[in-house]
Design a protein that fits this description.
Gyrase A, domain 2; 3 helices; four-stranded antiparallel beta sheet
Length: about 190
């Protein structure tokens, strides 16, 4: 006898296959969602960690900014002190130069034939005024000044006849440049 199967086997197989595919698709979708959730969670943790690190670095930078400002203040103070020390050294050198100039002029003047009425030093220029018996005495004094290592470029600014106590004398004005000799500057760069 013949048996006839009236059940739709093919349809049932197709439906079972479709259910398996849908279940597999749902499983894949759930696994994919779990992976995306894990990656998202990890990214949120990284962002949070980086944000915390950024705040920490910003705070650290702020503390370094205060230190940098102190360093800049100290650098400016150091420059100011160096400038003041340089000014003090220059003043000491100028004072020493003035003393030596007075000594040079005193040693080179013929005090029996001439005398000074004024001596003015401003920076590297020196002006001498005085009275002499004659022009030859003035010329000799100029030559002696030129021999000085501290005096250069001696010029006669003016010379005129002046009557003092009934005697005709020569009034003169000299201009010259003054500086330390080069060899002395190298030996004593800082005058104490």
């Amino acid at each position: 006898m013949l048996k006839i199967n009236l059940l739709p086997v093919r349809q049932l197989k197709r439906m079972a296959k479709a259910r398996k595919e849908i279940a597999l698709g749902i499983c894949i979708f759930i696994v994919l969602l779990a992976i995306l959730a894990a990656v998202g969670f990890r990214q949120v943790q990284k962002i949070s960690s980086l944000h915390n690190k950024q705040q920490q670095l910003t705070a650290e930078k702020a503390s370094y900014d205060a230190t940098l400002r102190k360093i800049e203040k100290l650098k400016k103070a150091k420059q100011e002190l160096a400038r003041k020390a340089e000014v003090i050294d220059k003043l000491r050198a100028d004072a020493s130069l003035t003393v030596r100039l007075i000594d040079e002029v005193a040693n080179r003047i013929d005090n029996k034939r001439m005398w000074l009425t004024s001596m003015q030093q401003q920076g590297s220029s020196l002006k001498l005024s005085g009275v002499a018996l004659d022009n030859q005495t003035i010329a000799q004094f100029m030559d002696k000044l030129k021999e000085s290592p501290f005096v250069t470029g001696v010029t006669l600014s003016s010379s005129s006849l002046k009557v003092i106590s009934g005697k005709s004398l020569k009034s003169y004005q000299l201009a010259c440049s003054v500086a330390y000799p080069v060899a002395e500057k190298q030996e004593n760069p800082r005058v104490q």
